[in-house]
Design a protein that fits this description.
The protein is built from eight helices and no strands. It has about 180 residues and is mainly alpha-helical. Among the domains are: about 10-85; about 90-135, no CATH class. Helix 2 runs antiparallel to helix 5 (about 65-75), helix 4 crosses helix 5 (about 65-75) and helix 6 packs across helix 8. The chain is elongated.
Length: about 180
């Protein structure tokens, strides 16, 4: 029971793992940064079932890394962050569309609408404001994450390359001791 409430290795371990996984990708810093930014960008949209596909397509079109796109999607768009993302996009969408409360005291039965698949009924009150509202935060976070990821990956790869070259120099400079 304790493991469910407080993991033995802590809550930050998965975040550190994803960060190291991104850093160790064998792609250019640009490709890794574009992939992560694409994953985060599409995580702002309300189309949950196709986030990975959208991230792969966007990453492919921008010459990004597909694994980085998947990691960006998984790290940013998850059950812990979706309520905050949805609330933010909903409010931003209503501000941008100059809408007041579209429900006007009524309630929407989303489960029934999704079950009956009335896309036209879902579009105007739910999806349109969330999609419009997702554009500004998606652009802002994607640009910020691109530059942060680019410089962090570039620095990591340079340090790693320097360390590996130093090891190779040390190996080549030591004379091999042959035993007779």
């Amino acid at each position: 029971m304790r493991e469910l409430l407080w993991p033995r290795k802590g809550f930050l371990r998965p975040i550190r793992y994803l960060g190291m996984r991104v850093l160790r990708l064998t792609a250019s810093p640009h490709a890794v940064a574009v992939g992560v930014a694409a994953g985060i960008c599409v995580s702002w949209t309300p189309f949950i079932g196709v986030h990975f596909v959208m991230a792969f397509v966007l990453s492919y079109l921008l010459s990004g890394n597909m694994v980085a796109a998947a990691l960006g999607c998984a790290a940013f768009g998850n059950p812990l962050t979706y309520p905050f993302i949805w609330g933010a996009t909903w409010e931003i969408g209503h501000l941008l569309l100059n809408r007041e409360d579209t429900l006007s005291g009524g309630a929407i039965d989303l489960a029934a609408m999704f079950h009956e698949l009335h896309f036209t009924q879902i579009w105007r009150p739910v999806l349109e404001p969330m999609l419009v509202g997702s554009i500004p935060p998606a652009l802002i976070t994607s640009v910020a994450v691109y530059f942060a990821t680019f410089y962090v990956v570039k620095g990591f790869q340079n340090r790693r390359r320097t360390r590996l070259l130093e090891r190779a120099r040390l190996r080549l400079s030591d004379p091999v001791q042959e035993t007779v």
